[in-house]
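quick q for whoever's on today - can somebody do inverse folding on this one?? i tried earlier but teh output was garbage lol. tokens:
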């Protein structure tokens, strides 16, 4: 048997094929550092070219599909995922070392299924299109399908953010766009399993060939060529900042929407009154959040801002003691491990004091000792760019400031972040300074939290999982929260003096399903 035949297939144009293999790679079991079973292809440009052609053909059909059929696909897919949960959990555990329970089986898989079902509801109800009807001028508009979308999934959420099952995937599908999913190299077998279930769901609900496709890896040049190709309408990307910026640069040059989640240190401010009131409790909250999933959450609280004082010193001692006592979690890959050690080195070289940790742990497991570093507010303000280096993993940087006013200046110097958190005294002792901190913070983050850690992102229509650059590439959009997330992959289309029978159903005089909110002559109504 040839090496090509032994290699796992890609899913292109409704077929599993072993063709178009430039080279191969294997995933890694982070718990021991050894390669997992299965060889996966690095696809040639011919594979991508065929996928783009197939997506274009599928789009000619999918852009005219009714929301009910798209909803049926999403619901059928969700049902198949639930039925296959044991296999999916086992695969993801082996490729990521994330705990089977509660993380994968009890949290992330149900969240993924819930996302797909909420997406189905949105597709069926159709209010995401934001139909606007001006009867006097006979002008009407709504959001419509955009075109084929490429979705690049991250390494840290093999289910809920996977390119072929996660939030970006669901949002693109709701809008009637075919998806070319780029699996993360850390969990190709998990992604392949999702693709097989998605293929079955496409068949069961009569979706066009090429509506959902999967490749595992490409060369960097072919990845850039994919993003630039005129057959591709938009890109959803979650991953490393450097690679994301390279692809964004390509997309920008050709004027293509590129929605990326890139980097975030997620500042947490604990005001003096909160420390005085419940400092010991906050140590526990902060450590649990910081070490959850070995710190490998995009909303991990990586930068802590405090005002100097005896209670602050006691708080820091408590955090260090807990970080030293807690077992270091397994990182997602050797690449994550290498990147974390490099980032810690950058921070240390810039003057951050290493209070604990900072080194790779011995053995084959991908792991770094739980790490706490410390700087002053003055140090941060002298070199804000370097002290915002993202240490993705089980590490935190604590900046001890001279005053709340200095904390505000530190916040003003921050790049964009996904989240920003303020802890304050529940009896009002911090109320006089809260407003200035909150006012500065909300300009730098997509989500402001009070008295709760940012780790985790609720699946809610009101959620914003986004923020100013470099948290994401566009501050006006969210990656979580349907229907808002769908608009990233939609085009606003206006119909001027178009006859009623020729309009999209959602813009006709009669509400097509009686449940769609439409703005008619300035008033939102279901009538």
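ok took a stab at it. sequence:
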């Amino acid at each position: 048997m040839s090496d090509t035949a032994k290699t796992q297939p890609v899913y292109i144009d409704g077929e599993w094929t072993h063709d178009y293999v430039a080279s191969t790679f294997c995933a890694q079991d982070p718990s021991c550092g050894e390669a997992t079973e299965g060889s996966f292809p690095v696809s040639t440009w011919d594979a991508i070219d065929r996928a783009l052609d197939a997506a274009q053909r599928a789009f000619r059909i999918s852009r005219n599909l009714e929301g009910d059929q798209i909803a049926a696909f999403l619901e059928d897919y969700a049902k198949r995922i639930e039925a296959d949960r044991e296999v999916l959990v086992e695969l993801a555990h082996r490729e990521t070392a994330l705990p089977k329970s509660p993380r994968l089986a009890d949290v992330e898989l149900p969240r993924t299924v819930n996302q797909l079902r909420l997406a189905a509801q949105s597709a069926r109800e159709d209010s995401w299109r934001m139909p606007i009807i001006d009867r006097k001028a006979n002008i009407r508009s709504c959001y419509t399908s955009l075109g084929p979308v490429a979705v690049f999934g991250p390494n840290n959420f093999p289910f809920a953010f996977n390119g072929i099952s996660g939030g970006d995937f669901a949002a693109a599908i709701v809008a009637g766009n075919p998806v070319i999913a780029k699996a993360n190299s850390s969990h190709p077998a998990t992604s392949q399993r999702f693709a097989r279930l998605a293929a079955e769901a496409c068949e069961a609900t009569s979706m066009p060939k090429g509506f959902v496709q999967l490749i595992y890896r490409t060369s960097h040049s072919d990845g850039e060529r994919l993003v630039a190709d005129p057959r591709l309408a938009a890109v959803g990307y979650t991953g490393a900042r450097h690679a994301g910026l390279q692809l964004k640069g390509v997309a920008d040059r050709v004027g293509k929407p590129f929605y990326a989640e890139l980097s975030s240190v997620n500042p947490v401010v604990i005001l003096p009154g909160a420390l005085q009131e419940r400092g010991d409790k906050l140590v526990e909250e902060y450590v649990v959040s910081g070490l959850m999933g070995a710190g490998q959450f995009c909303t991990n609280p990586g930068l802590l801002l405090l005002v100097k004082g005896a209670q602050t010193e006691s708080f820091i001692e408590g955090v260090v003691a807990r970080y030293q006592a807690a077992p270091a979690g397994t990182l997602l890959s050797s690449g994550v491990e290498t990147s974390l050690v490099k980032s810690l080195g950058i921070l240390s070289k810039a003057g951050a004091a290493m209070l604990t940790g900072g080194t790779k742990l011995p053995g084959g497991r991908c792991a770094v000792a739980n790490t706490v570093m410390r700087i002053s507010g003055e140090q941060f303000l002298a070199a804000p760019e370097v002290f915002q280096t993202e240490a993705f993993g089980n590490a935190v940087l604590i900046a001890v400031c001279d005053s709340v006013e200095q904390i505000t200046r530190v916040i003003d110097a921050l790049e964009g972040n996904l989240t920003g958190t303020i802890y304050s005294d529940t009896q009002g002792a911090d109320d006089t300074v809260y407003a200035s901190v909150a006012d500065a913070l909300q300009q730098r983050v997509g989500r402001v939290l009070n008295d709760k850690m940012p780790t985790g992102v609720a699946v809610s229509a009101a959620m914003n999982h986004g923020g100013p650059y470099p948290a994401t590439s566009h501050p006006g959009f969210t990656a979580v929260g349907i229907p808002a997330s769908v608009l990233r992959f939609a085009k606003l289309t206006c119909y001027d003096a178009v006859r009623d029978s020729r309009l999209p159903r959602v813009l006709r005089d009669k509400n097509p399903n009686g449940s769609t909110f439409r703005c008619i002559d300035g008033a939102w109504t279901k009538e």
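fwiw The first strand starts at residue 10 and ends at 12. also The longest helix spans residues 100-125. so keep that in mind when u check it
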